[in-house]
Amino acid sequence: MTICISRRQFTLATLTLPCPLVRTPQAERIPPPPPSLATESPPAAGPLSHTGYRDVLSIAICPLSDLPMISLKDIVPAATNTINTQFIVLDKGNIGQDGKETTCLALVADETAAVHFQLWGDECHFFEPGDIIRLSNGIFSYHKSNLVLRAGKKGKADKVGEFNMLFVETPNMSEIKWANDPTNPRKFVKEEEVSSHSRIFLPLP
Amino acid sequence: MSTSKLLRVCSLDAENPIDSSLREAFSSLHDRLKPPFPLTIPSPSEYSQLNLALAYGMLTEPHLAKTHLTHLHAIVIDGYNHFTTILINLSNESYPKLLQTPKSQLLWMSSKLVQVAAVKVETLIISLLRQIKGGDFSEPNLWLCAELMSILANNWDWLLEEPLVMKSSLFVFLRLLADHYRLVGRPELDKLKRMEIEFCIRVLRQHFDICLDIGRDLIRILQDLVYVPEFKNVWMDFLSDPGKFGVSVFMDISQLYRTRTPSHYLLLTITPEMETQLRFLLTHVKWGSQKRYQAWFAKKHFCTPGSETLIVDIVRFICCVHHPSNEIIQSNVISRWAIIGWLLKCCKKNYFLANVKLALLYDWLFFDEKVDNIMNIEPAMLLMVNSINQYIDITHTLLEFLFLLVDNYDVQRRELIFKGVSNSFCLLVRKGVVHSLESLTSCNQLSPVFREKLSSMISSSNLKTVKGSSESEIILCGRRTPSGA
């Protein structure tokens, strides 16, 4: 039997085969890091400690606000700053001027959804693709007919890490058409998905 | 937000927890840090706060650092364990962000802690060694090399008591010398090069007995230094007069070949930040999502002119240090072989590409099931087999290189290497990493010469008999069930 399989097929195979591709006896598993490289105090317990993946969980209760962190898939347009969330920057558009203020549109995402994020002022030059940002009291609303997430006047975006965060590029919350909730005209509900992915920032080939 | 005296941050950076704990301890105890020091014995929590405060004082107030150090000597009751741990955490978590003053102070404090043989100072020095970046000729990186080199050279007696630091430093500086020797026209580098050469030669010549357990990667990195005059003699003695090292058990270079390099050494040549990112990529990122991470990694770590040499270290890390669990191997997390395929494509210069291929195939050459780990050779096998359809050039170039190594790597020990490579193929099939080698031996796109060589290698090994054994059947049956049903 030959195994001339392409990368894609290989992926599917790894998903469905019940038997491990490599049979490693227990003894051949990763040994614990040598004591000289591992520091003993808890804050630096492993390679994924400070800016690592675990932080995504540990910052889940945002110290800057009473409101809990929400996932991007759950954000709904509103007129007030209430959004506390964390995401990774995937892409940045060109930096431009909006009146006196420097602005720049970015594609950001977490493990549940992506959204367009409006960078403002210094944020435009400072935040780069791969940066993990914690948004406190942000706002998701229409800005010049574009539906964007941003810090707004009352909110704040802080860089909390780099690289170590998972994301999805679909759905994109800025590519959803929202309608007024018939039972509560001050609220929005999802009407339809205009596009599964961002139409401004195209997915990598 | 006030700007930090410790780290290079701006108002858009979230507060760094280490920075704030140090700063808060310092500001709450500030008045007690000036002489006369109180004679009362601090409670455990006061002691802990005092250590943080003194660390912050020394890091940010160079003009008062000596006073703070005297204070530390006066209060210390734990062999400096607490204090050293603070610095280890700072180095591991925040070294790349440190401002120049705290950076210089950290190195000064480390040298002082070496002088008093502080508890865990060996961990601190090894942590700082890991902050040196391979392939980076920037001023701050060369400065760190020089600072650590002087700490090591000025504390030889201490180093003799700390063999792991000696061996780790040897490994790191041999690796760096290959970079530094390649760089010409930088006279300010000459002094550093001289110190590095003297240090490495001294360790190799006087303490070769303790270097033996570094194993085969010691030879691999020494290969890059074969043209450095000082190392020519070392090579001559390795090959023709091993007795010159004065170690009775060392009779032949093949003893080093046969020793698998502990992962400790291969971790030294990549920074903690790279390690975190690579482990994240290979533990969490799914197939199809890897491209952005790869682009970010390359932008961050491969942007300087010499950084291609780093790819060799990363490939060794992936093969020998990062071994995913069976759960991850079965999941749709991106595989090690695919990341290595990408790294091969990142390498533009042939010279470095050859070194990357050597790094990928190195454990094949001396593979012995008793001492070696199949996970070290698995990525190359899967990369060869899975590239057949779309990237036959990779399969071709790896097989070509492997046969080249068998014939030429060490002509006098060709038998050993031939056996290592055939052992590798044999075990990879027996353990079910690949069903068989038929995809290679029957692949029309591969040169008939290679296919013939491969077939003769398999037939010379006991692969054929093993294939019929019960163990292999069990593995193959398990694999066959879903597709065969």
Automatic annotation (TrEMBL), chain A:
It comes from Dendrobium thyrsiflorum (Pinecone-like raceme dendrobium). Keywords: DNA-binding. GO terms for cellular component: chromosome. Residues 25-45 are annotated as: Disordered. One of its GO terms (molecular function) is DNA binding. This is SOSS complex subunit B homolog. InterPro entries: NA-bd_OB-fold, SOSS-B. The keyword Ribonucleoprotein does not apply.
UniProtKB/TrEMBL annotation, chain B:
Residues 46-455 form the Integrator complex subunit 3 N-terminal domain. InterPro entries: INTS3 (IPR045334), INTS3_N (IPR019333). It comes from the Eukaryota. Signal peptide: none annotated. This is Integrator complex subunit 3 N-terminal domain-containing protein. It comes from Dendrobium thyrsiflorum.
